[in-house]
């Protein structure tokens, strides 16, 4: 460990110092990206945001080329920066945010007491900025690196349904994938993420008077209430499996047997085996009253990512140690597109974006003083040995 730390230490400290000397510039570039609103649901703003990002990356990465894969909401921006060494690393990010158009008017990018705020600053515009600066730093300092392929989609916050196959194809053959999703503290890396299964179940029963004619009715509400009990029983917190019936609606009046009900379910699983167990148990369940019809729609939006990439984790540990920062490896319940690329067989390290907190919330923020450390972490991971 000691020798590895020494080997990478000089270079990563040089990158950190290079970034620290340009921190105002880094923050200015972050301000432009945050104030360029990119809600997942607004194709016009997303296209404008992609143009801003592309122009900036091409300008910052000398000799790079950009292309757009696919079209529409699932389109993926690809920027290639040829390297001085063999191999290719993928930097993966998303441009879209969960915030509606106009949010930036109410609370534009601002830095107060060393904390940057603004819609999407943490998830994940600061991550994009760090990734771009990490490559720029290596090149400015003439440090050898493999080729880098930046992939940025714009439908991540709505499930990456259009972009996922484009991401898998564009990342195929890469040596590793570094995901620019938010971190936590200066040393955070994310080494595994649960899979997310999303289902909607619609029950159709038979309406009847609850007093005069109850046996003529078949309650859709009762069926989904029973299914709720069944699903809650499938959770296994020790195995990392959680089940949340987040939405449950149905019926019209207390004295009417409900002919309609609907539920939305969120399942998280750490392993493929657990994901399959819950799926099978959901599919196998049938209402006690066979006159109620169930329609089940949905599936695993992102598969479990349970196999950390040990080489990347130890590399991150060594880079951080050389900067005097303790590594903070986390396994988290939230999924990302890292799950999709890990399932495609690629070594993935995630959570390499900014330190801060409050993703998807108004108190979202980024710790400005940690940006150079996080840029140096990325640069160290990109440069490898
Ligand atoms: Zn994100």
TrEMBL record:
PANTHER family: ACETYLORNITHINE DEACETYLASE, BLL0789 PROTEIN
Domain Peptidase M20 dimerisation: 191-285
Keyword Hydrolase carried by entry: yes
Keyword set includes Transmembrane helix: no
Species this chain originates from: Actinomycetospora lemnae
Protein name: M20/M25/M40 family metallo-hydrolase
Domain of life: Bacteria
Transmembrane segments: none
Keywords: Hydrolase, Metal-binding
């Amino acid at each position: 460990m000691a020798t590895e730390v020494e080997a990478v230490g000089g270079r990563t400290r040089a990158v950190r110092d290079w970034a620290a000397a340009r921190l105002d510039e880094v923050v200015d570039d972050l301000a432009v990206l945050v104030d360029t609103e990119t809600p997942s649901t607004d194709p016009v703003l997303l296209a404008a945001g992609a143009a801003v990002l592309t122009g900036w990356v091409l300008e910052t990465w000398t000799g790079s080329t950009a292309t757009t894969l696919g079209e529409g909401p699932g389109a993926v921006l690809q920027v290639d920066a040829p390297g001085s060494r063999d191999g290719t690393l993928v930097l993966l990010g998303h441009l879209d945010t969960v915030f509606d158009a106009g949010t930036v008017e109410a609370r534009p990018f601002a830095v107060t007491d060393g904390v940057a705020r603004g819609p999407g600053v943490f998830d994940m515009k600061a991550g994009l900025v760090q990734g771009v600066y990490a490559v720029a730093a290596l090149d400015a300092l003439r440090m050898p690196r493999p080729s880098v392929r930046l992939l940025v989609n714009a439908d991540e916050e709505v499930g990456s349904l259009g972009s996922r196959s484009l991401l898998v194809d564009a990342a195929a053959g890469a040596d590793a994938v570094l995901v620019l999703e938010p971190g936590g503290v200066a040393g955070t890396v994310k080494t595994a993420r649960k899979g997310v299964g999303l289902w909607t179940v619609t029950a159709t029963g038979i309406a009847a008077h609850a007093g005069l004619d109850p046996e003529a009715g078949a309650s859709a509400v009762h069926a989904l209430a029973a299914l709720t009990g069944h699903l809650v029983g499938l959770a296994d917190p020790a195995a990392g499996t959680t089940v949340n019936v987040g939405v449950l609606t149905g019926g019209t009046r207390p004295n009417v047997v409900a002919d309609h009900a609907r539920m939305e379910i969120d399942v998280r699983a750490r392993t493929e085996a657990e994901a399959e167990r819950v799926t099978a148990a959901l599919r196998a369940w049938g209402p006690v009253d066979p006159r109620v019809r169930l329609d089940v729609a949905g599936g695993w939006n992102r598969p479990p990512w349970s196999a950390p990439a040990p080489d990347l984790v130890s590399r991150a540990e060594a880079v951080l140690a050389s900067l005097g920062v303790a590594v903070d490896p986390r396994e988290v319940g939230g999924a990302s597109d890292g799950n999709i690329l890990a399932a495609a067989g690629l070594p993935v390290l995630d959570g390499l974006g900014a330190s801060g907190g409050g993703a998807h919330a108004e108190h979202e923020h980024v710790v400005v003083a940690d940006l150079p450390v996080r840029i140096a972490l990325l640069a160290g991971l990109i440069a490898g040995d």
